[in-house]
Amino acid sequence: MHRYHVVSRLLLAAASVAVAFVCLASPLHAQTDRFGGLEAMKAKATGHFELEKIRDRWWFVTPEGHAMIALGVNHLNEVRNAPEYPRTVLAQRFGKDWPRVHAEIEKQIRTWGFNSAGFFPPQEMRPTMPYIVTTKFMSASFYSEPLTYVDVFTPAFASEAETKALAAAAEMKANPMAMAWAWSDSLSWDLKLTRQSRGTDFVSFMRSLPIGAPGRDRYTAFLRERHGGDLAKLNAVYGAKFTSFETVGGASLDLDRAPVFADDREFLRLIARHYYQTISTGFRREHPRGLLMGERFQLRDHPDEVLEEAAKFIDVLGIQPGDHFFPPIAKLTRPDETWFDVAEFDRLHRLTAKPIVVVDHQCGFFDQQTPKTGGWHQYASAEEAAVSYDRFLRDAFARPYLVGYFRCQYLSIYKDQLKRYKQGLLRPDGTPFEDYVTRLTQTNRDVIRQIREVP
């Protein structure tokens, strides 16, 4: 790139930061505690994050006892290992002095109106910025390759859950910046979508385990209970000729047959109940007041049975918008991820009675340095993407149950598996998308101001 253009971008970036620091000195930001809570909205200080309904809307409550709406940026930990990093402005200024690098990143995202390091922050930012503690349990999300479910009924899984729950509880008790505990990523729960896109599903996985495996035995016991121990009755409704409850499964099982599908959905409920109960038990014992988010559910890949069971154990519901099944399962007849689907989010809140966080979301746009972006919808221009961001956040935070929004990605990084850029707020050279972040900053500030001013 021509030196003139690089210098111009650096000057523009410096100017945008200067403008943002002026904004930080405004009364809006002078009235926040160190966690981002609004000092004028006082609640009980407990020393850790809580959730509370104030003025007919849900809020996070900071450890110092102030109402807070979380606005964050995810994947900040990717910066140090990104192939693009050595060519960035950050590398030119700080090299691999990671405390200084991440201090600069924190300063930068704060100027853009973000108050949280979201999911997957680097260790250097965890003492100074609110974040979500995140633990992985299995590679069985909508994008995992291969899709790998595990038998959640085994003692080994219970032991793993105990170990990870205790670690999460310890981190949250030791660090008041830790907001909640979540698991990454959402499992591919929906039976039809997973079968169509991956050729398997959680129930089919359990059914395929060898006889004697805890998950397979639990499935067999479920069938006996469901059909009153009457094998002839099961065969009649299944249209099959199984010789015992233990042998139900295989190619002769018609998964599309209504009674089979109904049974599978109820067994999926049992899987979800056991999964959530097993993981949450140790955490609740060690940190009874700690906030539990559970999974980052992929929008529309969460059968009601699963959400109903999850709601018994979690405090806040995490939803990731988007239509990420590829190739598409069917023609889209609903709002895509560029729109906040008010009707569906309202339904999820009614179903679970939990406040909601949009846990990972963005929309990309064309830029010379990132001509092809992946994972999210790409607009033709930064202006269109900024308008979409503004619309999404205003619609989302108009709902009184919405307590947080985390934007996907900080630095634009090329992803080989996508053959596209995962676009962030910075170009691959480390300079901000100036016009976009200026508009985004204004949206963030407007949204918080409007929420605060609701009587």
Mean pLDDT: 90
- Secondary structure: number of strands: 15
Broad structural category: alpha/beta
Please describe the biggest sheet, giving its number of strands, its sense, and whether it closes into a barrel.
7 strands, parallel
Based on Cα principal axes, name the global outline: globular
Count, helices: 14
Radius of gyration: 24 Å
Cα-to-Cα separation, first versus last residue: 51 Å
Quaternary organisation: single chain
Secondary structure elements and pairings:
Blueprint: H1 3-24, H2 27-30, E1 38-42, E2 50-54, E3 57-61, E4 66-68, E5 70-73, H3 89-94, H4 98-111, E6 131-136, H5 155-174, E7 178-184, H6 191-198, H7 202-208, H8 214-226, H9 231-238, H10 258-286, E8 292-298, H11 304-310, E9 317-320, H12 342-352, E10 356-361, E11 364-365, E12 378-379, H13 382-397, E13 402-407, E14 413-415, E15 420-422, H14 434-453
Parallel strand pairs: 5-13, 6-7, 7-8, 8-9, 9-10, 10-13, 11-12
Antiparallel strand pairs: 1-4, 2-3, 3-4, 14-15
